[in-house]
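agent> Task received from the user: take the single chain below, predict its 3D structure, and emit structure tokens. No templates, no multimer pairing.
agent> Plan: (1) validate residues, (2) run structure prediction, (3) serialize to tokens, (4) report one or two observations.
agent> Step 1 OK, no nonstandard residues flagged.
tool_call: predict_structure(input=
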Amino acid sequence: GAVSRRPRGRSGCRARAWRSCCAASSSRRRPGSRYVEIAGGAPITSAPVAAAERGWSPTFTLSGFSLALFVSGLVLPRVGRLVDRHGGHRVIPAGSLLAAVGLAAVPLATHPVAWIAAWLVIGFAMAATLYEVSFAALGRIFGTAARGPITWLALISGIASTISWPLSHWLMQVVGWQVMALKSGQNAGLKVPPKV
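)
tool_result: status=success, residues=196
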């Protein structure tokens, strides 16, 4: 059974919606993020610079992100079953920590194999932290009342994405793409959400 607890009354529903939305969205910013972190932001905006610095083609450099998307889609059904069985409060924090490892590995990858491996890790992290798993976690908590929390989460994430892309580009100019990516990994690790 996927549906368990349900909030009592409108005020309780609103309180849990805000708590759950903030917790779920906290794991996705910055490249993190669409990560604000992972899917957008640091690794993507820095790809052309990384390609020039490493002597790789832009096509190869961005293929890492394509691979991450493929892996994420491949494992999402399994991740959804894990959320249904164990809850988002276990799956999403694990994904956040995995994202921290992958994001920190990107700027340190000087060999093509290491680059692809870092993006493989990010792909698994994406499956455990982005919209799909967050919506599943909220559905598990709120059941048929999940429409409101899901709407709030989508709104918060959309605003975060709008901010993160230009911010990532600006930070890349100020501190360099490698420092920015490392900070993105650190941020993902620190943004492990509380129980949702």
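agent> Step 4: summary for the user.
The CA atoms of residues 42 and 149 lie 28 Å apart.
agent> Done.
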